[in-house]
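Observation: inputs received (chain + adenosine-5'-triphosphate).
Thought: call the complex predictor directly.
Action: predict_structure
Action Input:
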Amino acid sequence: MNEIGLAGLGSTLASLMFLWAVAGKYFPFNLEDLLRRRFVKFTYRFYPYIHVSFPEFTGEHLKRSEAYSAIESYLMSTSTSKARSLRAELGKDSSNLVFSMGYSDEVTDDFDGGRVRVWWSSTKSESKTPTFSIRPAPQEHRFFKLTFHHRHRDTVMERYLKHVLESGKAALIKNQQRRLYTNNPNRDYDYRMLNWSHVIFEHPASFDTLAMHPDKKREIIEDLKAFKAGKEYYARIGKAWKRGYLLYGPPGTGKSTMIAAMANYLDYDIYDLELTAVKDNSALRKLLIETTGKSIIVIEDIDCSLDLSGNRKKKEEKTEEEKQKESLTGKPKEEASKVTLSGLLNFIDGLWSACGGERIIVFTTNYVEKLDPALIRRGRMDKHIELSYCNFEGFKVFAKNYLGIENHMLFETIQRLLGEVQITPADVAESLMTKTSSRGVVEDANACLEDLIQALEKAKEDATIRAVEKAKEDAIASKEEVEDGPNVEKQQSGEFCKNEKASD
Ligand SMILES: Nc1ncnc2c1ncn2[C@@H]1O[C@H](COP(=O)(O)OP(=O)(O)OP(=O)(O)O)[C@@H](O)[C@H]1O
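Observation:
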């Protein structure tokens, strides 16, 4: 092209751009938009298909995409009959195989009575870009690809994908084994940087095996049932779909067993949150975001996990033993968690706590009186459940489950003794198991009940001895007080403590 030609082209382009700008300004409709749509329509003549891809990991923190999991589960039912290459995994009760689409395979799916046809394929690609980050990124990128004709765009986007996600999520819950998650202390070494790691949850506890007064049990079951069915109710009253349970009582009274029974009853996963391993409030929030719905988030022994007075303790001096350990291993003592009470309150009912929905938060403690009232007020911990020493009703549950009996001549003695001594359900369970053979068969119910009576009588004796000793100590203390007069020093220090508490 000669110089004149180039100049001509230049001026033509300039005129076109000018006209474009003028047209965009003065035309009554959006010309640019119209032309773009015409162009797209034109290209559809040659290739009328649209693709949507769903990557496995998304976001800055590479969280496994819920959409990917739901599609994977949806395709399990579709692909088994249609795909030619399948992957097999163990199903819910470890006795059946669940099949899913193999990589690089494609299946068709018909929707709307066969009017809409789509194609799904599963692909993986190796990451070729070298990464120089401290935390290596995943080497494999997996995604599902959905292909459909452009004339079905609205149906696919508005109805078909909704159907896939809903059916997939439902199938996921039905097929997937329930999981017990724990916050991952090794996340820095996990390439996916997952905050939670999990094992299959297989605890056999149920409300039938829980030794507890039947009325109390019924009340808890009703509460859980109402919660599970409460999606619309919570939406109507404008509250996040979550509920807090505080389980308190002495060790061995069944707090952990109750959580397992709740999870089995609701068919929920459990997130066992080890608060002392959480670095700070923002790490706590990240953990919360990564939990899924239909789950129970548990913080056991909450009184031991956090300085609940709200005052951080001053940095503790290292002991000689710790200093020695550090010099031997070269590793400094692990930093204490900086999670604060307000961070925890935010976790329970801050704005972030509403993401996901259908979650139960459970705190357990052996010392309810130690907890900050703000933490357990109604609305945060909606239901306070006391698990206490074994009563006769609880014992009857054990007798039925462990020995297969509902009545026995020794029941009367046991009922009397249970009214006189405090014994934990764990101890009762232990006594009833002593005569069970290694095959799990009860060899002699009578002998088991006699063992329990012995344990109860021993507990009664011990309690009497403790009471006598306590009475002696009290008598000595009051005698000393009479002889020496009121202990001024003690009183002063008592007052000092009170003042210190008041100023806290
Ligand atoms: N109420 C109960 N019903 C049935 N079994 C129980 C009950 N309480 C305790 N047990 C039995 O005792 C064992 C210990 O109970 P569990 O761990 O649930 O008690 P806990 O209150 O959580 O104790 P801790 O406070 O020490 O964690 C369980 O394995 C279970 O077999």
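Thought: report the result.
Final Answer: Residues 245 and 362 are 5 Å apart (CA to CA). The longest helix spans residues 445-484.
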